[in-house]
Amino acid sequence: MGRTSDAKEKILSAAQSLIELRGYSALGVAEICKAAGVPKGSFYYFFESKEALALAVIDEHWAGQKRDWTGILNSEAGPLDRLRQLFEVTEAGQRAGQQSCGTVSGCLFGNLTLEMSNQTEAIRTRLQEIFDAQVEMVDSVITEALERDEVTVTDTREAARSVVAQLEGQVLFAKLYNNTLRLSPLWANCLALLGARAPQEALAGS
Amino acid sequence: MGRTSDAKEKILSAAQSLIELRGYSALGVAEICKAAGVPKGSFYYFFESKEALALAVIDEHWAGQKRDWTGILNSEAGPLDRLRQLFEVTEAGQRAGQQSCGTVSGCLFGNLTLEMSNQTEAIRTRLQEIFDAQVEMVDSVITEALERDEVTVTDTREAARSVVAQLEGQVLFAKLYNNTLRLSPLWANCLALLGARAPQEALAGS
């Protein structure tokens, strides 16, 4: 049992790295197993298809990211400070990825959305659920900021979608230009999108 | 000569449709030739590789989009009205695509950025040039708006990047949710990102 669950972890980990580097379509099961150092027979013992593996990679990646986002967005800091920390952590994560593999790999969910969402409904649905959850988490924080009269938006859901869209768009450019400095306007743009009342104060509050 | 250039056009057109539907990695040359209705030998007469075809598809798509963007962004309308028209035309284009093939296909350049930019430097460089050109075009219009005191941003290049990033992010969500209504906040968000002085007036100026 120890060895088999180890093989499953190895497959998941190799698949995540390969998907981040090269996307999903370009990968074959044989290549994933070779990178994982497990026999191909193991693959179909754990995953009924390459799509099932992709869903497992997505779920595992989201489990980690959700933990990070929850920790940041539910902290004791003021709501706008929590959003600023979210962008800082995102930027740090992309920088670490660039240092370890040479290129900014971007957002796994954004990458798979543009590559895969029109091809398999199971992946589309899972990615929708994840972005819905992200928007929901950001919405809660914006709602708090609104109650404290720190922002002027009225449709907090729409505002949360726009903040996440800005994040995805800037991460896309960080990947294209292989430059994490592309992420530095995120905080000022978030304040602008939220119609924040006192951006200088909020910035100084860090 | 007439027949051969016709074959080249057929390959380009089939490749563009297939890349929009399914991405680049998942496609094979044989499949592209079958969809184009041309013998596989023709392919290598016109294109030395699948990558060369992808570059030709990108160039052709950009030639058309650049014509559209230039027409809109150099028109006689006020600068902010021109930006609004750009979003309206983008939304209309995505709606037309959805009506003709059932799903929102998104932005070809954004799709290929997230799928391909870390895999081939030739494609990365071409996509960088295209997004640089888009940002440059939007920057010119923002600079005009700034001269007319209609916006309050000071770094017009950074602002242009953020407007294009917001566009890419919202188009990503329009694709994921197969819903072009996701593009409707683009105009209000653009005004927020630019610190527009009188959004109501600008909106009424349409």
Automatic annotation (TrEMBL), chains A, B:
Residue ranges of DNA binding: 28-47
Keywords: DNA-binding, Transcription, Transcription regulation
Segments forming domain HTH tetR-type: 5-65
Family matches, as Gene3D superfamilies: Tetracycline Repressor, domain 2
Signal sequence, renumbered to the chain: none
PANTHER family in the cross-refs: HTH-TYPE TRANSCRIPTIONAL REPRESSOR NEMR, TRANSCRIPTIONAL REGULATORY PROTEIN
Protein name, entry field: TetR/AcrR family transcriptional regulator
Organism: Streptomyces sp. 900116325
